[in-house]
Amino acid sequence: MKKTIYAFSILAGLSFTACNKKLDVAPEGSPSLGNFWQTSKDAISGVNAMYEPFDDENFYGRGVFWFIDASDDMVVGRGKPEAENIKNFNSSFIGGSYTEGQWSLRYIVIKRANDILRNVPAIKMDESLKNRYLGEAYFLSGLMYYQLAYNYGNDRAGIPIVNKYTPTPGAVVPRAANVNVNYDSVVSDLKRAASLLPNFDTYKPADYGHAHRTAALAYLAKTYLYKKDYANAESYADSVILSGKHALLPNFADVFTIANNWTSEYIWSAYSTAAGTSGWGSILPGVMLELTGWGAYNGWGYYMPTRELVDEYESGDLRKAATILQPGDQFKYFGAMKTYSTTNSTSGYQFRKYMEPFGYDKPIGTYLSPSGDHPTTALNPPLLRYAEVILIKAEAKLMQGKNADAEINLIRKRAGLNPISGATMTDLKHERRMELAGEWADRHHDLVRWGDAQAAYAKPLHGYDPTKVIWPARKFNPDVHNVWPVPQREIDASGGKIQQNQGW
């Protein structure tokens, strides 16, 4: 990966929430940039440019979700060779179109964040706003490195860390020695972000979707969890919990509604809108919708739940009906009640969490993108929500030999379940799976970091018909498949200086 990514987006004078189309891109070094970074408007444009790649269908929509699809909670949904090879840990998917851009898309955001960190400090403008913009840059830099690190880095090699302040154009940055070097860098970025960013409740609606303080604190907790620094994971989870800025919504199903995009459970989401000719943001709800949407909308029919997930729910768990659509279930679709059935889902099930935007009468243009080829909705898919922060604290406490009953029972209470005592890691794993199924919390990486993936994937997967195997047992090698392969085009562009992960 080259140190400099030759792209720069300018969205002069528009707020991020006004974006409903892809932003204009001008190559770095063009004459229009000669007088850039002079005014507060330039700073705003630079900040908005960081968020522009989030509209790419593979950023928070399809692409990277193929990696999450590797878990035992879901199957591809319908025939897709590249996706099937990913799920089977078959290296023939390397170089394919859906995951190849994950690396470069995130380094584009990092490059744009670094531009802000180098140039905005010298701009004469309101200091509090300047600090917020710098905080956003540190946050998005840290978040991008975190997402790259846990997908591509391990004990043998991390991912390249670009010099923020004095980059050398054209130079190839080598991979960090190991993933912990990356996590240390992420921690540094997120701590700087947390010190500069305001709380979300100070934002006006026009600023919703921008980074804020407790999002930085929550990702610090999650980074420390992945780093296996459990004391700090607990501490930073506590900083979110004790901030008084967040709370669980009383009803689990309400979390996944447009009206609650920005309520107390919100920490960080994939900002999305149906506005404009093709919407903007995450296409995940449309990707998960029944193929062709029963003739009403262009659903893509991917990421369908497995019976193994369905059967894991305890009797009386309110999360089951809010998470899974099973044959015979009633749900609202395009303003009318419909009985769920499918003619094309591999498993016979569908995730229900992202279905609310499809329930309105005449939803296209208001709740659904007018373009089924870019099926964004007015629902923001959660990337990290408050319930996960509570579970991060619970896991961190258990890994330190502490009692985590209070945290786990807080989650169980909302699910309509009885409290437990003497909770163990088995209980934590169960609650995390039930609470976060089908979300960006990433069940696959949970299994990998717990050391459970090899055993889990050695079992076949089933659908609504319990007698039918819909996905055969897979061979997961924990020494190889604990990370995903570096995109081949990045290896080629580096002249081989960036090497492939061992075994891929």
From TrEMBL:
It comes from the Bacteria. Residues 292-504 form the RagB/SusD domain. This is Putative outer membrane starch-binding protein. It is found in: Cell outer membrane. The lineage of its organism: Bacteria, Pseudomonadati, Bacteroidota, Chitinophagia, Chitinophagales. Keywords: Cell outer membrane, Membrane, Signal. Belongs to the SusD family. GO terms for cellular component: cell outer membrane. Residues 98-225 form the SusD-like N-terminal domain. InterPro entries: SusD-like_N, SusD_RagB_dom, TPR-like_helical_dom_sf. The keyword Membrane applies.
